[in-house]
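User: My advisor asked me to double-check a structure prediction for Phenylalanine--tRNA ligase beta subunit before group meeting. I don't want to rely on an old file, so could you generate it fresh from this sequence?
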Amino acid sequence: MLVPIDWLKDYVEIKEDAKDLGDALTLSGSKVEKVEVYGEEIQNVVTGKIVKITKHPEADKLSICQVDIGAEEPIQIVTAATNMKEQDVVPVALHGSTLHGGLKIKKGKLRGEVSNGMFCSLEELGLAEEGTCHGLHIMDTNTPLGVDIKEAVDFGGGVIEFEITSNRQDCFSVYGIAREVAATYGRELKGLNTSYKTSGGNVNDIVKAEIKDSLCRRYMARAIKNVKIGPSPSWMQNRLNEAGIRPINNIVDITNYVMVELGQPMHAYDRRDIAEGTIIVERAKDNEKFTTLDEVERTLTSEMLTIRDGKGTIGLAGIMGGLNSEVKEDTTEIIFEAANFEGVNIRLTSKELNLRTDASGKFEKDLDPNLPALALDRACALVEELGCGEIVNGTIDIYNEKKEEGHLTVSISWINKFLGTEIHGIEMKRILESLGMATEINGDNLEITTPTFRSDMNIREDVAEEVVRIYGYNKVEATMPSIHATKSGKSEKMQLNDELAKVLIGSGLYESIAYSFVSPKVFDKILLPADSELRNVVEIKNPLGEDYSIMRTTTIPSMMESLARNYSRNNKECRLFENGKIYIKEEGKELPNEINILTIGLYGGVDYLNLKGVVENILDHFKVKSAKFERESENPSFHPGKTAKVVIGREVIATVGEVHPDVAENYGIDERAFIAVINLDKLYSFIKKNNKYTPLPKFPSVTRDLAVLIDDEVLVADIEEVIKKQGGNLVEEYSLFDVYKGAQVPEGKKSVAYSIVYRDPNKTLKDSDVNKVHDKIVRTLEHKLGATLR
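Assistant: Sure, here is a fresh prediction for Phenylalanine--tRNA ligase beta subunit from the sequence you gave:
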């Protein structure tokens, strides 16, 4: 935002030069981007009168001018400008002069004719933003000739460019910055001229207004009659140019002047173009066509707020008026509009239409709904000051939910403790009141009334920040932070995750990390059914793209992506694990359930047993003895005959198996891949917190081998279940050491051999003790599973 310093001087005394002012405002918390002092680099530019203009004999677009610069003889200037005439006084850059931006001017020839310099526009003098004015700067005819341009033209005190944060809507204006200057220097903030006289009639007899959508919080309007359209005075044009706005005519310039001065955008309608004398604020119709002031036809949607009359749209609310109701040269009656709109809607509409204006840039910050009244008063005062119309009695003001002042009570001692200062309460009161906040001291408390233009003042920390930035950050002495360190370790879950990582790394795996954002297309790649609950996902409101548009409900796609990436880079073997989260929506809850998942992925020189071994290492490390591996054939992402689920009690804590060949093919992996998905929240819940020490056994063990013939479809897990159950407390451990099919084994059968260790912790076992239990195991295998002893 560009703020002319001379404009600030209307409302606060400024003794300092531009650079010192910029430094002071920076220290008090305003972000100053640039300080520009006009005219510093302008050299050898004087005033001159064009005494004669002739056409260039060799160029239709050039003119030869004889210019009186107060010397003995006129000088000759060749120019392409067209907006000058004889007897006009203009700035003349002579040979060896310097213009804005360091541009050097020398005499030369243009198409064979000598030119001893050039004429200047306001842009070339640095008095206007690029593109905001056109042609030469024509000066008053009584301007002395031959004088330095810096004496003849008011270059002003310069311009300061600010970057205003979105929470400081009050600073998006000259008057808001003037308030900051007054507070920074402890000076008086002068009031605005908002007084004016009204003539007969009443605005309510001229136009009616109605709000039909809550996106408009307030709508105000006044009527001006006997309007005289013409150029605004030079002082107003200069200020607008310095603020980066091109002057148009007196009425439009008044609306822009008020917008820059107070931060409240306004609009002026030609009364003749408001059909049926009716103004309605409502949403547009889908696919409605509307031509804005920039002569571009735009397609609207029902999400966009418009200003309409009795026949159609006449303005895009908060953004730009329509070409069908603009102020024209013969306009004699206007309607001034000042309103307040919901900021988010203005921002979305502006973005959708690719139409960003000065008005939309302010409205999208959520302006104070009490500001339109002040803006209308100021605009009417300027109409009277410029003598360009008469203000009709009355005001249209629709304000359904009035915004009230806020109230805060903050402890003085708390502020000082928080800041590390010893600022007196009276000084705090002075600072806050200089910023527009009425404040009373009640014992140790500040009773603060926050104005509606300071919607950022909500908590005591906000008050402390206002106090210290005006008091001066540079006045706060450096102190050591009063922090008391306490010794604390990692949480139990963090410790378990560390142990888990050590087990996995010790098993030969590398850790991988994946995004929690995935594409909706991954569900099809892992063959997930259309009605699967895992497709009920949390969608990202502002995704980076479709590939990162939802929160994952399964980690299989992420692991498959990692395996595929390694496979595509010709890595022959890959062993990975990821400790991450999935996000499951639950009805009635705003936020999804976050479930911690361990995912293991392998390919290259491995089979199902390698993957199962890694999972068993985890279970053994955490001493989870009751886990069972059961056949799993219902998971579509896995091979139906080579997949198991890990069950503890009635809880399924994991799925372990070979990836379905079609899934592997979808990810471009041409060999067998294996994945384990373990619910860590469930696994950790089965870990015993208090493990008891078991002394070394006093009595010897007895080892027996058991080999049986059994049907091929019988799982070894079923055999182990019998051994464990029938062996009771005497079976210390058992291990499978042989599975055989072939010669001497009938078709459809297999030979399974176990080594079983028996031990009694209280005595030495006899053969009869072991035989009794061993025979019981054999009989149960024969009866329950159809096994025969080999």
